[in-house]
Amino acid sequence: MDSVTQTIVNYIEQTDVTNREDLLSVARIAFLDYLASLASAEEEQAVQDLARFIGADQNITVNQDTSTNQNKTANQDTYTNQDQTANVDGHDSYLTVRRADKALYYGFASHYLDFDDAQANLAGHFSTVLYSALLAVLEPTDTWHDFLRAYIIGAELEGIIGSLINPAHRTQGWHSTGTVGVIGAAAAIGALRGLHGESLAQLLSLAATQSAGMFFQSGTDGKPLHAGLAARNGVWAYELLQHTSLQTSTKPFDPERGWFKAIGNITVTSNDIASRWLAPGQLIDPGLWMKVHPYCSAAICGAEAAEIVAHSIYTTSSSYVSKHYNVSPDAEEQGKRRLCATLVSSLWDDIDRITVHFPPGADAALRYTSPTTGREGQFSIEYVVYQVLAYGAVQDGLFKIDSIDQSVRDYMSRIERFYDLPKVSQTERITKVTVTLKNGETFTETVNNPKGSPKNPLTLEDIRIKLGLTLQADQIDRIMEAFTRIDEVEPFLQTLRKEGVLHV
Fold it and tell me: Range(s) for CATH 3.30.1330.120 in the chain?
């Protein structure tokens, strides 16, 4: 085992989060946010298609394989998932949904709407991968503490790796949700299942060799597939190790020719890992970005800045107010109500141009300046700003349309990106939006800590609202009650299944 791999193995084995309530509290919120992202996507056609592809559909609940894998030898033919009675299209049948496929489904579904959290060091999404993989290998006796500890360890390793390889990894076109996610998934699984030493090194090795995911897939179903594949391949690596005689290298992070050298052409030392581990922790610094709308987190600052600017125009622009509504500029509450109503394209009739200001390179993930579909629009600051100025707020449904009308694209052509803000660290985000009206009035706003950012995080009430996009209030009450009073994870998952959140 090389020194870097040995260091990582040691930290996975030895990390104790018993007294780290700061990390545990973020992990709990992240899990509920993950469930909200998952539930919101399960009615999407592509998600349902994948469920059918793996041998499941929206009505299936697959019982947990409760066998203990730790002591099985390669020649024990005991790894045969028991057939489970399921209902498919109204017919009883016997289906097998393997753990790896379960992880694939959860990862794909929870990332499908791009509604899940993101992390700046990783430049990607680790909760969708980690929780999907952990749910797939969960045993009925696993406690919340062990479950959340495993998540924290996976998140820590992913965030540290991201801090070492980015921004070069991202600018080269890699999607770290896939490339780094599979390694984090393996680390989390290894922590939960109590692997040690060379077994843990081999698990990381089998995961690392499956590292993949390219960012050109953004705006397509290929991007959420990265999350599903990373979760699946982490589980697959674990199952290969547990149920076959397959042997692999125990030096996946060898400084000379290991993963860091192959993927990033960089040399990483043991100290690069040790000096960063839980100091204070990737969930704390830089923390998580959680979303109230389903689009790329790189656009959150710009969206909030645009909302503030739009409200200023509606309520303080004397020419606009007198021209369109004949109300006083201080009619703030009327303006707020107007903003969240129906299309107000008349505002666009008064707009000359819009400038969205970024630090250099801060918009790398927002690769579409003139998106043609709603999916592409999730990665377009132009489309997000258009929605805010047309409707007063982002309209989630517009990210699901098959084709963006040419008239909307004409509006977006008035939006220009400038890179005149000072360069910030990899973990910081800041965006300024400037709107110039045809009468010469100019409105501008700068935002760096929008709702959902690490310094302005979502609360439990915000998560309830997010769950409410899919579930009824009484369902949410029962889920929250179970979440706070049950020590073991499995009874909570049973509650989720009863409430229709977990189907596979």
Answer: 297-447
> d(Cα 150, Cα 158) in Å, to the nearest integer?
12
> How far is it, in rounded angstroms, from Cα 198 to Cα 41?
38
Structural class in CATH, domain 3-63+99-292+457-498: mainly alpha
Q: Which helix (H) or strand (E) holds 481?
A: helix 473-485
- Which three-class secondary structure state does DSSP give residue 351? strand
In one-letter notation, the amino acid at residue 372 is T
**What is the signed CA dihedral for 280, 281, 283, 287, rounded to 10 degrees?**
50
The DSSP secondary-structure symbol of 61 reads -
Q: pTM score, two decimals?
A: 0.88
Specify the DSSP element, H or E, that contains 352.
Answer: strand 351-357
Extract long-range pairs of 254-262: CB within 8 Å, 24+ residues apart: 254/2, 254/4, 254/5, 255/2, 255/3, 255/4, 258/2, 258/4, 258/5, 258/208, 259/183, 259/208, 259/211, 260/4, 260/164, 260/165
* Closest of 479, 492, 485, 489 to residue 36, by C-alpha: 479
Q: Which residues contact 294 (CB under 8 A, 6 or more apart)?
A: 40, 113, 114, 115, 378, 396, 399
What string of pLDDT tens digits covers the 504 residues of the chain? 999 999 999 999 999 999 999 999 999 999 999 999 999 999 999 999 999 999 876 444 433 333 333 333 333 333 333 333 333 333 333 345 799 999 999 999 999 999 999 999 999 999 999 999 999 999 999 999 999 999 999 999 999 999 999 999 999 999 999 999 999 999 999 999 999 999 999 999 999 999 999 999 999 999 999 999 999 999 999 999 999 999 999 999 999 999 999 999 999 999 999 999 999 999 999 999 999 999 999 999 999 999 999 999 988 765 555 454 433 334 344 343 333 334 545 688 889 999 999 999 999 999 999 999 999 999 999 999 999 999 889 999 999 999 999 999 999 999 999 999 999 988 899 999 999 999 999 999 999 999 999 999 999 999 999 999 999 999 999 999 999 887 889 899 999 999 888 878
**In the chain, ranges of CATH 1.10.4100.10 domains:** 3-63+99-292+457-498
Preceding peptide of 329 cis, ω within 30°: no
CATH homologous superfamily of 297-447: 2-methylcitrate dehydratase PrpD (3.30.1330.120)
Whether omega for the bond prior to residue 280 falls within 30 degrees of 0, making it cis, is yes
Look at residues 367, 7, 321 and name the one whose alpha carbon lies nearest to residue 157: 7
Distances (CA, A) of 183 to 61, 179, 202, 287: 28, 8, 11, 19
Q: Give the burial class of 329: count Cβ atoms within 10 A of its Cβ; 0-12 exposed, 13-18 middle, 19 or more buried.
A: middle
> Is residue 366 a contact partner of residue 299, using CB atoms and an 8 Å limit?
yes
| Residue in 12, 8, 10, 2 with CA at minimum distance from that of residue 190 | 12
